[in-house]
Amino acid sequence: MLVVAAALIDPAGRCLMQQRPADKRHGGLWEFPGGKVEPDEAPVDALVRELAEELAIAVSPAALTPLSFAADAAAGARPLVMLLYVARAWSGEPRPLAAAALRWDLPAALAGLPMPPVDVPLLAVLRESLARGDALA
Q1: What does residue 79 show for φ and ψ, rounded to 5 degrees?
Q2: Which PROSITE patterns match (predicted)?
Q3: CA gap 26, 10 in Å, rounded
Q4: Can you tell me the distance from the alpha carbon of 107 to that of 45, in angstroms, rounded to the nearest whole number?
Q5: What is the pLDDT of residues 58-106, one digit of tens each?
């Protein structure tokens, strides 16, 4: 299963995480916003769609910079591969339409949050990239 996610970075360098609803798999854990890629859908198009559906924001495909990917073979019957993109520009104020809560914080502070296994290495890559000063998005 192919999943896309976004590290939305605000001007203060904070990243947005969303908390999964309690009644979902990994309920209560914090994750990057995103979702499944539909058949015949490009990953960037899927992420633009998911961010609109989950957060009520508009992101241009050109504003999404690919950063890394992670795999979770223990995700159930179908292994999961997550592609992480970085975005520093979007329209609208993120709202938790499909999440229990939203949280903005510096990536170093987010490392202490409980997360689904596939998000953990992606946050580590994001932290390392930002610490090196990589030009992300």
Answers
A1: -60, 150
A2: NUDIX
A3: 26
A4: 25
A5: 999 999 999 999 998 765 567 889 999 999 999 999 999 999 999 999 9
